Amino acid sequence: MSGLLGIGQSALLAAYAQLQTTGHNIANAATPGYSVQQVSLATSIPSGTGGGYIGSGVDVVTVERRYDRFLAEAVSAGTAAAAADGIRAEQLGRVDSLLADTQNGIGAAIDDLYLAMADVVNRPADPNAREVVLARADSLAAKLRGTDEQLRSLAAESGQRLEQMTVEATDVLASLARLNEKIALASGAGHAPNDLLDERDRLVRSLNGYLTANVVERADGTVTVTAAGGEPLLVGSRAASLRTVPDPASPDRRQVAIVMDSVTLPLGAAALGGGALAGLLAFRDEDLQAVRTSLGQLAAGIAAGFNAQQALGVDANGAQGQPMFAIGASGLASDFALLLGSGSQLATGLAMTAQAASGNAGDLSVAAFAATGPAPMSSAPVTFTFNADGSFDVSGAGTGDPAGVAWTPGSPIVFNGWSIELRGTPQAGDRIEVVPTPDPSSDNRNARAMVLLADQPLVDGRTLTDAFASMLGEVGRRTRTAETSEAVSGRLLADAEAAQANLAGVNLDEEAARLLQYQQMYQAAARVIQAAQSMFDTLLSATAR
């Protein structure tokens, strides 16, 4: 009777264990990271008799979770990639929106400045037209500064988010260290602590949301975690901490570092591999820095072009033109500013003008007169006197007074920071005189040159408009690339999660069916015990007579 009773008891215990495990699965169907568990059974060692081996029931070997290491690694890797791509795409989208204002942005401000300068060409003596140029120039400077300030705010915000993320990632590592201790103790009994292992997998995935974490399982059930570059993050119960430390290349900027005991290892975006920390670092140190550099180059091109042209002209009072814009030593647009305080300081005219002498016998005339730079033109008068053979003599300070200079109509003659082109046929004794401009306030020759700056390659061989368009295009390209990467990594993560859920997720329909199955097994086992008890009672009754 004891054999049959033992078989019934083992069947009852096995059915009860399966009912408990199924109930546990149903209870955790919505628990994040939970892996469905199942009871592993084995036939008990049979008893040998003269008539052969008779079974002795069933043993509960252990409770296992459905788990695939490769699927778990795929989910962790997908989490790291998606987190990096997601935060980079989000931040680049903000930069793209900031720069893409075609109505009130920097591009419109550049066009407005050129339009205002074109109005001064038509009305150089009008003080209001000059003041409009200054207002437009100041608006352009404010837009450049404001845009760079907003970009700098994004960089500062990125630094604050890095600080917060390192604290959160450090907390995850500390939790993993505590779990390692618990798992090592629980594994000593020879069975896997499934719920603790699920919690560890959840924490590993959470850690991959910050940086790529490579996991190696040890014989005692604990794990060693390293960063993408092999730097230790967790060894046994010793967890590293993540901190932000000053960047040696830029003290006002902070970088991520791993601190283990007394060793500090700075990590760049590449060393972090993936995760939100890597994506944010890539945005701040690569994307954002590239945009700010391009914006600074644009500001420098504006300053260099207009300042150089100002230096070649004179203002409304005949004074040498002063620099129009300033840009600091940093080369960033945040230091860009308008220097002129009055429209009268616009160097719209040239210090000298050329004219044919009133008593000339030929039809010699001035075809063009322009500043050559880069130094300001001399204010010393110069006279060209033509000889009978068509050559000319030069007299005037700074010219060296050359005589008998051969002349070809239309070819430029250059002296004292200016050039002149003549046309016509001179007679002997005809003169061309280069003299100070009598009314600089109404002279528009240098203003015309400023308008023509719109077609000059002021920024890396490109016009200001083309340089700004190129910067917008580059930001758009980076944004679209990041968004595409985000979509791809998001799909890969979703596929990995679906594969893992298909293996390890709780299917309530299946668990409900198993619940009925195990309930029937429990009832049948109880009947076996009942039958054994009945047989035992019958035997007792027979022997009692």
Number of domains: 3
Whole-angstrom Rg? 43 Å
Instruction: Identify the overall geometry.
Output: rod-shaped
Structural class: alpha+beta
Number of separate helices: 10
Question: What's the helical proportion of residues?
Answer: 40-55%
Unreliably modeled segments = none
Task: Please report the total strand number as a whole number.
Answer: 20
Spatial order of the strands forming the largest sheet: 5-6-7-8
Helix and strand pattern: HEEEEHHHHEEEEEEEHHEEEEEEEEEHHH
- Main β sheet profile: 4 strands, antiparallel
Strand content: 15-25%
What distance lies between the first and last C-alpha atoms, to the nearest angstrom?
20 Å
**Overall mean confidence score, pLDDT:** 91
Structure commentary:
This protein has 545 residues and is an alpha+beta fold. It folds into 3 domains: 2-66 and 505-543, no CATH class; 72-294 and 464-497, no CATH class; 352-436, no CATH class. The protein is 51% helix and 18% strand. The chain is built from 10 helices and 20 strands. It has helices at residues 2-27, 69-99, 106-122, 127-187, 194-208, 269-272, 275-312, 445-451, 464-504, 508-543; strands at 37-43, 47-49, 52-54, 58-65, 213-217, 223-227, 232-235, 238-239, 241-247, 250-260, 263-267, 325-326, 337-338, 352-356, 365-371, 382-386, 392-395, 413-415, 418-423, 431-436. The protein has a 4-stranded antiparallel sheet. A 4-stranded antiparallel sheet has the order 14-20-16-17, with no helix packed on it. The longest helix has 61 residues, at 127-187. The two termini are 20 Å apart.
